[in-house]
Every structure is written in structure tokens, then in C-alpha cells.
Fold this sequence. Notes:
Elements: H1 3-26, E1 45-47, E2 58-59, E3 69-74, H2 79-95, E4 101-106, H3 113-123, E5 128-131, H4 136-140, E6 148-152, E7 158-163, H5 169-181
Parallel strand pairs: 3-4, 4-5
Antiparallel strand pairs: 1-2, 1-5, 3-6, 6-7
Helix pairs in contact: 2-5
Amino acid sequence: MSSSRQWIVVGGVTVALVGLLAFGAMSGGTGGPIVPGSVAPDFTAHTIPDSGAGLPEVRGIASYRGKPILLNIWATWCGPCREEMPRIETLHKELGADGLMVVAVSIDNPGMADAIREFRREMQLTFEIVYDESGKIRDDYQTTGVPETFLIDRSGVVRRRLIGSSWTVSEQRALLRELVAEPAPAARQD
């Protein structure tokens, strides 16, 4: 291959990479994979009050600022999600009083609030369940499917990412106890 042709190929590849990076930045990409050590991206979801119990409230990562979070992304139609919900409830009952925020974000299709409410009732779930009808949290957290769970420390940093439902309570209990025991981050002085 001639020298000028090599430079054309290198230039084309460079332009393509720059274009992909620009597209990712414009489309709200986080700039890198969500892995332990990443800052937990914000999201927008709504609470699902019991029928006739008031209006939904908006929730996002800032709603839980300063608290350790077990953030679960799930859907009512997902069999593995149904399988892991009792384990998540167990962790909520064990560590919720100590400060662990358990938040399950449903990515069900729009208009499924009643189905989510029924799922919560049927499974006897007492932790916070919110609803992202847009499903944008999937992009923000770069999920590969559902369920996916993120353990986030008080500073908003992802400490563990659990893909699928094969994890056990005993495997995560030590880290969650550690997160609950960590001191709250110092208040920022602006």
C-alpha cells in the first residue's frame, strides 16, 4: 500500500472514531462504561402510589444523596427479576433500618403502573419501587438487559455491578454492610 493511501485510511478511521465519540456525547452517553469506580448517573423515575393514595413523585439519584443504594433495574415481564425480588426484599429488611436505600426502577412499557403496583403487592415488596416509562435508565446505566443491580456508596460511586439474577444475598451482604457503615461524605463548601 502506498504512503498516501495509508494516510487516507488512517484519516478515514480517525474521522469515523471522532464521529462516534461526538455522537455518543450528543446522545447523552456517559463517556465510558458504568463499572465500579464510576459515578452513578442520574435518572428520572416516578413513584407508584397505591391506587388513590396521591400523585406520583419524581425520583432521581439526587433523591438518595448521602445514602448507600442498592439500585435494581427490572421489569414485571422478566422471570429472573421475579426470582431475585425476594432476595432484594431480604436485604431491605436486614439493612434498610441501618440506612440502605433499596430502589427498584421498573422499565416496563408506558402505561404499566397498575401492573407494577400489582407485582409489588403480589411479591409483598416493601422497598421503594419507581417507574421509568421512557426506559432511559437502561441507556444511562448501559444495561445489557434486566435485571441489573448497582451497589452505590454514599458518595454516589458505583461499587459493584451485578448482571442477571444469579447473585446471592450472602455474597453481597458484606459489601452492603460496609457501605452502610461508611461515614456520610463531608458537606461541600461552595
